[in-house]
Specification:
Arc Repressor Mutant, subunit A
């Protein structure tokens, strides 16, 4: 590979494990796994990171950009330390997701896609080194969310 090393050897080993699940001529099938691994290491997907993934998988950069820009799980700009993701599609909205989303926006003083400079303590079973993702499920009420985030 001629490009400078953008990802750590550990991340490249994980991508190699993902590509090994596919026939050798179908490495690009692991693009979502590769983007997830890259984002976990870098915190977000900068253009040079996506270019590197494209070259590593032997696919056009535009194909990688299309995947990264289509799925909301990929961050194409730097994000805060604690990322909250709330499902607001119709089934979730019918279960109170939009009420919970409005509650969080009001409590945090931010809109969708924004970052708060205030710090909050988050209760979660995952270690602090991991990125937090809070997914609203059927039981997620504003009170439970505020309690879980210690707002």
């Amino acid at each position: 590979m001629n490009a400078p090393l953008v990802l750590s050897p550990e991340s490249l080993a994980k991508i190699d494990q993902a590509t090994a699940k596919y026939p050798p001529d179908q490495k690009q099938s692991a693009v979502m796994a590769a983007l997830t691994i890259a984002q976990d290491e870098k915190g977000w997907l900068a253009p040079e990171t996506m270019d590197f993934v494209a070259q590593y998988l032997g696919m056009p950069p535009i194909a990688v950009y299309e995947v990264a820009s289509f799925y909301t799980m990929y961050d194409l700009a730097p994000v805060g330390k604690c990322k909250l993701a709330i499902c607001t599609n119709l089934p979730c909205a019918l279960q109170g997701a939009t009420v919970a989303a409005e509650h969080l926006k009001r409590k945090l003083g931010i809109e969708f896609g924004e970052t708060s400079v205030r710090k909050y303590m988050v209760r979660c079973r995952k270690p602090p080194s991991q990125r937090w993702r809070v997914f609203l499920e059927n039981h997620g009420s504003p009170l439970k969310i505020s309690s879980g985030l210690m707002l």
